[in-house]
Each structure stands twice: as C-alpha cells, then as structure tokens.
Design a protein that fits this description.
It contains twelve helices and 23 strands. It is an alpha/beta fold. It starts with a strand and ends in a 6-residue tail after the last strand. The structure holds zinc ion. The site of zinc ion (ZN) has 5 residues, from loops.
C-alpha cells in the first residue's frame, strides 16, 4: 500500500492510503518453497553455546524454525563445516565517507567530490558492508551529503541496490562555528559537515525539519573541537551547546518517538549528553566511573568505535594533534568503567572514518576483546545488544522464529578467536543469499 499526498477540499494536505479497491485483482502467487540451511554448528547468541548440526528453515524473508531435520519439499542449502550466526549489526557507520584520518582528506571529500560521486562510492560501501556480514547498519550522518542516506536506505529497501537494513540520520546537528568546514575565507560560502542550529527554538525546528525528510534517528555532536587531556588522564573540551539547546533536541526527538545518538569524546560532552537523556554515547573516550553509572541507570548505550580510534591516532598525532596520543589510554579506561558499571555496549566501528575498501569492519571485534570483552560478549554487542539499541529486538541480531532471515556463516570458531568473523563468506539477508562461499571448507 502506498501513501500519497492528496489535496483536500479545504486546501490543506493530509495523508491517505491509496485505495486497494482501485488496484486490479492480482492472481495469488505460488509461495516459494522453504529453504533449509544446514551447517556444522549454530551459535546460540543468548546462551553462548553451539547447537550441533542445525537446520534453519526460512520461509520468505523470515526464519520459520530451528531444528535438526529438513522439512519435506524444502530446498537445501548446505554450508558444510561452517558456523552459522545471526547477521551482524554495525551501529555506527558513514557510507558517504571513504576514510578521513585528518582534516585534509575530510575537506577533500566535502569540498571537491561531486554529490553523485559520493553516492556512487556509498553504493560500493553498502555492498562491502553487507558482504562482510553486516545485514543491519545505523549510518550516523552524511557529512555534507544532506539526506542522501535517506535515499540510499530507500533504494536498498526497493531492491535497487544491495545493502544492509539501514537506520539513518541525515546531517548531524551542532551549533554555529563548531564543526567543519571551517576557517576558509569568510566571504565565501562553504558546505558544512553538519546542520547548524542555535537556541532551543532553532534546534527544535531543526529536528522537525530533519524528521520531515524521513530520517530514523537524530545525531548530535555533544562536543567538537578543543579536546585536551586532563591531569588525571581523561579528556575534556569546551561545551558547544547550552543546556537548553541540547535538551530541546533530545526532547523534540523523543516526542516524535525518535532516539538520539551523541558523539561524545570529552567529559563535558558526555556529561551534558547524559543529562539531556540521549540514547547512545558514540566513541566515549572520556567516561568517568560516575558518568558510567549514570549511563547504566538511564539505560544509555555506549558505542565505542575502537577500530577507528586506532586507525586515526597515528595520522592525527603526526598532523599535530597533541591530545590524540593520549586518547587511547582514556578510551580504554572509559570502556572499562562502562563494563564495570553494567552499561550496554553496542558494536560500532565508524567505518567510513577508515576506508571501506581497505579494512573489514569486523576487525572491531578484536579491539573489543583486547579491552576485556569475552568473544561471546563481543558477538552479543553486534547482535542482541545492537538490536536492542535500534529497537529491533527479536527482528534482527537473532536466529529465532519470526525474525528476519538475516544469517551469516564462516569457517572456524568465533568463540575461540573473534578474528574468524573477518572470514564470513556466506550472507543471507531477508531470505536472499547475497554472498555464497565458492567452496565448502
Ligand atoms: Zn562517526
């Protein structure tokens, strides 16, 4: 059923559903046969245990059953010696970026690349992400590419291009003078990497405008420039929002049932974002124990993006960023504070901050484990926990009856070593095989 804008008699507009009665009668199509997927083992993410010799039955785009026998009439897909897992979820990506370790690469993409070129490269990024096993992604802002993420999401949903299920934000929000493109000649107009809003009313209007273009989430920069190391090994910065502004953004989004992700890399940024009641803290380089406890109490997730932090630290330090050499230690401490406080940690990589074509975003698992997560905790961060953050619990990140048939498989044992997740060579999204192994191991 499609929705159309119909002019009403009184001259205003309202939404109506296109009448089914006007559609010509269609013959009932014969449903395709169920698909029975066999593998050596299935990782039950909830219990952390393997199920031996599973048979997952898929009907249409959903999982119908998990058992041990192939139902009559089913088409069999045998994955040999592989381990079957739910499709993975990356809750922090930028498909419209192609790696920006320093301001030079960032400015190059935002100022010089034609919009269609950026979209073409985003189409490639979506395919890469999907083929690496990420069947759902939350893409956290377009960096100067407006609402092209909304268009990409819709094109994926229409089947025009391959890609993960997407939740998108359009441009992130920040205040005047706080985010690139900056410091170019003032008599010329340059594009901004964000949508600027000022004042509580202005920021409420910005949220309303963004949602009118079809975005799913709101993203804010809870802090931007001016990062500095504190004497006790954390990171701080000046605020870029007033309390009224940031509260206006969060309350307006929540009033529409939309969640808010906050980029927060400093004490001040984290504090004001938590106080305003955002839903996720992105990066989280500087989260003291008290802040972590408050996050746990309020149910605010951490999305740590450890892989990108490692990728940019070297180039940014070389480009003169003094604090960049300090952030890794603060980040590790913050991650630990969150784990101890019981904060839910969702998998997010910032892919696009590093090149899609060079690094498999599944490498993030290695960093999570290096900082103390067990392999099953890391896998949960990219499945059940990420699904909860996205409000898609029971739909994605799980192999259970009624969930989307989003499945991945790989040789090896991810519980023995999470680097096996970089070897995913079978991907199914919504019952469709989007990547098949060339031969059984
Ligand atoms: Zn990001």
């Amino acid at each position: 059923m499609t929705k159309r804008l119909i002019p009403a008699a009184l001259g205003c507009f309202f939404f109506v559903s296109a009448a089914r009665a006007a559609d010509p009668p269609r013959p009932t199509p014969t449903p395709p046969p169920p698909v029975a997927i066999r593998a050596a083992r299935l990782l039950d993410v909830a219990s952390g245990r393997y199920i031996e010799r599973p048979v997952v039955v898929v009907v249409g785009d959903r999982i119908d059953s998990i058992g041990s026998t192939v139902p009559a009439g089913a088409r069999v897909l045998d994955l040999g010696n592989r381990v079957l897992l739910p499709g993975l979820i990356d809750t922090h990506t930028h498909v419209l970026l192609q790696g920006d370790p320093t301001a030079v690469e960032y400015d190059e993409q935002i100022l010089k690349e034609y919009p269609a070129h950026r979209v073409a490269r985003a189409v490639r990024a979506l395919k890469i992400g999907l083929e690496h096993g990420f069947t759902t992604m939350r893409d956290l802002e377009t960096e100067g590419a407006g609402y092209d993420d909304v268009a990409l999401r819709d094109a994926v949903n229409e089947g025009v291009i391959p890609g993960p299920r997407l939740k998108v934000v359009g441009p992130a929000l920040s205040t005047t003078g706080s985010y690139p493109i900056q410091h170019y000649r003032p008599d010329w107009k340059f594009p901004s990497g964000v949508m600027v809003c000022d004042g509580a009313d202005g920021c409420r209007k910005a949220v309303r405008e963004q949602l009118s273009y079809g975005t799913d989430w709101v993203k804010i920069y809870a802090n931007t420039g001016g990062l500095r190391a504190t004497s006790d090994g954390y990171i701080d910065s000046p605020p870029n929002w007033t309390k009224e502004e940031i509260e206006a953004v969060v309350s307006e989004a929540h009033a529409h049932g939309v969640k808010v992700a906050a980029h927060a890399r400093s004490d001040t940024g984290t504090r004001i974002a938590i106080a305003a009641g955002v839903d996720s803290i992105e990066h989280g380089d500087s989260i003291r124990p008290e802040a972590a406890q408050e996050m746990a109490r309020k149910g605010i997730f951490l999305v740590p993006t450890l892989l990108v932090a490692d990728y940019v630290a070297g180039p940014r330090t070389a480009a003169g960023c003094a604090v960049c050499a300090e952030t890794e230690k603060a980040h590790a401490k913050s991650f630990d504070n969150c784990r101890k406080a019981g904060v839910k940690i969702a998998f997010g990589t910032d892919a696009g901050g590093f090149p899609w074509t060079e690094i498999n975003q599944a490498k993030e698992f290695e960093f999570e484990v290096k900082l103390g997560m067990t392999p099953i905790e890391a896998i949960r961060s990219a499945t059940t926990v990420a699904a909860e953050l996205l409000g898609m619990k029971g739909q994605v990140g799980t192999i259970e009856k009624g969930a989307f048939a989003d499945l991945v498989a790989m040789p090896g044992d991810p519980l023995a070593g999470v680097s096996a997740l970089q070897g995913i060579d079978f991907v199914m999204k919504g019952g469709e095989v989007v990547r098949a192994p060339s031969a059984s191991p």
